[in-house]
Amino acid sequence: MFLAQPDSLIVTREFAERNGIRIGAKVPMRTMDGEKQFTVRGVMKSGGLTQAFGGNLAVMDIYAAQMVFGRGRTFDRVDLALNEGVPLAGGRPPSSSASGRGSRSGRLRRGASRSTR
């Protein structure tokens, strides 16, 4: 099972094709403890989210990512995407209430390198 294995990744089809990666391949990444090998457990179909960052996208379990990248048990970033045609202002009310009591800012901010979509 993908989530039960902390060394697991799912990569985009574009990334896999560009790099000759197949399911079961080992991918090296730098972590808090030096370079570690992660196993590609799946390949995402093209479209939607997989187009972010030019298709250079990998997904892993959030708790495993926090551990290997030294984030502890806190989230330092959450990216949101709006449906096609929904302006940024239209996404604020539900999203800002979802940030909850634990939120440091209590408001949404557009990331420095993010577009308005």
Per CATH, the architecture of the domain at 2-68 is Beta Barrel
Q: What is the name of the CATH topology of the domain at 2-68? A: Barwin-like endoglucanases
What class, by secondary structure content? alpha+beta
Q: Helicity range of the residues?
A: 10-25%
Order of helices and strands: EHEEEHH
What is the terminal separation in angstroms? 33 Å
Q: What would you report as the Rg, rounded to the nearest angstrom?
A: 16 Å
Give the CATH class of the domain at 2-68.
Answer: Mainly Beta
**Overall spatial form:** globular
Report the total helices: 3
Features:
117 residues; alpha+beta; Barwin-like endoglucanases; 4-stranded mixed beta sheet; 4 strands; 21% strand; disordered C terminus
